Amino acid sequence: MSQPKLPITNQTIKYAPLFMGVLISLCFALYALVTPLSERVVDWKFYDFYNSYSASIAPAQNIIIIDIDDQSIETLGQWPWPRYRLAQAIRLITEDRPSALLVDILLSEKDRSSLINIQESFASEFAVQLNFPGIPQVLTDNDAYFAEVIDKTPTILASMLTQHNVSKEALCTDNNLIKVNQNVEVGQLKQYNDIICPLHRFSRNSASTGFINATIDKDGLLRRIPIVMQYNDKLLPSLPLAGLMVMLGSDAKIENDKIGNFVNLNGRKIPIDSEGNALINFRGEGRHYETISILSLLSGEIPADYFLGKIVLLGATASALNDIVSTHLDVTFPGIEAHATLIDNVLNNDLLKTANWFNQLEGFIILLLGLSITILIMSQSVSVYSLSSLFIVSIILIVPAILLQNLQLYVSPFLVLINLISVFIVVTALKYYSAEKHLLAVLKSISNASLSIIDSMATVAELRDSETGGHIIRTRLYVKAMSVHLQTKDKYKQEITDDYISYIFAAVPLHDIGKVGIPDNILLKPGKLTPDELVIMRTHVALGGDILKQTEEKVGASPYLDIAIEIANCHHERWDGSGYPMGLHAEDIPLSARIMAIADVFDALVNRRVYKEAMSFDETIKIIKQGAGNHFDPNIVDAFLEIKEEMITIAQTVED
């Protein structure tokens, strides 16, 4: 026997979870492909979490920071200081022969405190010639003195790339350009239109120059430092990279490997992202490199050869100079400390990195896991796919931590994770919605089958008594009309629900099912029944109840059958307790039977039977009204009287 087909809507919705799982994963995968990791704030929050708990090696001991701090500014006077003072500090450092001295101060303008510049200013602005007799020539030009101090020393000066046009004496970009290996794509390096250089005399005498532009992520935190930037057709190094080039005596060249691009510096790899940034491996919270106040240096408190072979960085942490950034580990992190950390990372070969192909891999994983979890949810039980999903989520969260700790490679789990969660929620919801729709369709099919069985059983009773066909239809409509009206009453609105009305409507045809057990000579007798025959006729109530109870035992409990049993057993009970078969009283009689009692009597009185003529509607309504409180429930009689016109219309419309 062929199985009945479910409705087309249920066949269609069966595939909705698969469609939605694929659609959600596809959207996330496309977003992953078109959105660089550098632009995703939430992804970097995951990085912050992993990095905060990953072990870090001890900071290098050969890095020293000379700090222009608040105490130095307070003691030595307002900034900027006369350039001879910086020259004096640099001389004290370079005399100890450090491997490199990085000056994180932009020296792009002339020192207006120089006597020679003061003389020029007074001459041009006031037409006054100033003379300073007895002062050596070398002390009249601070810039010349500074240029002389840094000459032939490993001093690296700061520059700044900009999009604005600036006037300059000369370029500072010719002595330390970065080369690019053949067939290497430099990615999305930002183009700059101009550069702010140190004074020409400074850059000419310095060992090198490097830019000090910073990369601040959208959430305001520093995680990456630009290593390489593009100025016109030239690739320029940052201040830390320029310092490393001087210290190692090596050129820098951009190459690539399986992870992505990197700067090759005398065999040392400095991984960079598509924008030329290096991902800093912070040494933890707080300061990690030996820091000496410039005031102590200038006061002669530092012993000889203290800086021998060391990497020295000269910068400022003074509040007024505003060279403070925020990191995920420290909200007041000195910019000079970031340069020191990057140099430390390069020397220890533990810079963190991101793969240039991460977006493509991420998109593939999103699609793969999204489709896998969708199929898993659709094909497995809730315990299986829930445990499997939990296992997959654990892997997604653990793998980035392992890669960051052991390979210094950061891969973000965020999009993969959020896609998996989204697919899990939506597909699970659709699966159970689909299952519910399928179940409702099955239940509806069963319900229709049950109703068909009920109608078939009622037809059996109708075949025994040809006059009952119209009676079944009319009583069904009477009962429904009274139930709907009673539902509006406060007394019954909780008990008479929409489902209750559908159940009682389906059950009414079985109220006289017990008549199938009554002999024809009694059931079809045209005249009045004898007392003995009347006793037998009344047994149809118990017979009907027994038939329906046996049916329920075989097919299982059903609200239709429960109400049908109530009606079959009790529709001849009377409000005053004088009815049969059990002599129930008042509200001990089931509500369904009390409603049926009025419908049954009303229809019997207004229609002709073999043993009587039809009675008028007025007479019938009068009899039912008189039966309130003895035969019928007075509340239901009141409801009947309120809709008596509807009841009469039903009686007139449906004929035997």
Write a compact overview of the structure shown:
By secondary structure, this protein is α/β, with parallel strands linked by helices.
Structure commentary:
The protein has 656 residues and is of the alpha/beta class. The chain contains 23 helices and 19 strands. The strands form five sheets. Strands 1, 2, 3, 6, 7, 16 and 17 form a seven-stranded mixed beta sheet that branches. Strands 4-12-13-14 form a four-stranded mixed beta sheet. It has a three-stranded mixed beta sheet with strand order 5-10-11. The longest helix has 51 residues, at 414-464. The radius of gyration is 48 Å and the shape is rod-shaped. Residues 1-8 have low confidence and may be disordered.
Key phrases:
656 residues; alpha/beta; seven-stranded mixed sheet; four-stranded mixed sheet; 23 helices; 19 strands; rod-shaped; disordered N terminus
In terms of DSSP E residues, the strand content is 5-15%
Indicate the percent of residues in helices.
40-55%
Rg from Cα: 48 Å
- Shape, per Cα inertia axes: rod-shaped
Mean pLDDT, nearest integer? 86
Residue windows where pLDDT falls under 50 for at least 5 positions: 1-8
| Count, helices | 23
Ends distance = 38 Å
Structural class designation:
alpha/beta
Q: How would you sum up the major sheet? A: 7 strands, mixed
Quick one: how many beta strands? 19
